[in-house]
């Protein structure tokens, strides 16, 4: 199935969410020749540590997605304030509908509906509305998911994980967070891989499959 997708859209509420949730899968898709587009909705300027300029995450996400094989032309970065997405729900939905009408992706990766972060919940819910005519998969953010059904596993090579961790390392402003530890990223991918007799994997909830 994954090899049949030509156009793949990744929705990241905040810069780095997409890399955490499906960075290895993005690398695998890029290697297979798929056109991958990445849309981030917030650069979280109000949440940056002291000493980092306001545009830090806009720069870091460009460097990170380049590590995964996504060209700059396929990256869109919005600047909704963090933790305000529920009040901007209609604006976000209209952006997503425009994306569907413009590009009609074969598959969409987005946060899980069980993600407890309010911004992630909005992207997940509005993504289902905007892209209900195509395949939709929810990616795992372990520290935000109180409930997650492991319904699809994407097997990854070591090179895909190397590029995922290299991408996340580009976020110098986020390295103070415990979940940014590269060993943690490797261990999650290794655990998911072992569960399906592969070396590494990422996991997804399946909301819709259109074949």
Structural category is alpha/beta
* Beta-strand share of residues: 15-25%
Major sheet: arrangement of strands:
3-2-1-4-5-7-6
* Main pleated sheet: 7 strands, mixed
CATH superfamily: LmbE-like
Helix content: 25-40%
The sequence of SSEs as H and E is EHEHEHEHEEHHE
Q: What is the averaged pLDDT score?
A: 97
The geometry reads as globular
Q: Can you tell me the CATH architecture?
A: 3-Layer(aba) Sandwich
Level-1 CATH class name: Alpha Beta
Write down the domain tally: 1
- The total count of helices amounts to 6
* CATH fold description: Rossmann fold
Give a nutshell description of this structure.
This protein has a single domain (2-208), classed as Rossmann fold (3-Layer(aba) Sandwich).
Record the SSE blueprint.
Layout: E1 7-12, H1 17-31, E2 35-40, H2 56-67, E3 75-77, H3 89-103, E4 107-111, H4 118-130, E5 135-139, E6 152-156, H5 158-169, H6 182-195, E7 200-208
Parallel strand pairs: 1-2, 1-4, 2-3, 4-5
Antiparallel strand pairs: 5-7, 6-7
Describe this structure as you would to a colleague.
The protein has 211 residues and is of the alpha/beta class. The protein has a single domain (2-208), classed as LmbE-like (Rossmann fold), CATH 3.40.50.10320. It has helices spanning 17-31, 56-67, 89-103, 118-130, 158-169, 182-195, and strands spanning 7-12, 35-40, 75-77, 107-111, 135-139, 152-156, 200-208. Helix 5 (158-169) packs antiparallel against helix 6 (182-195). The chain is globular and about 40 Å long.
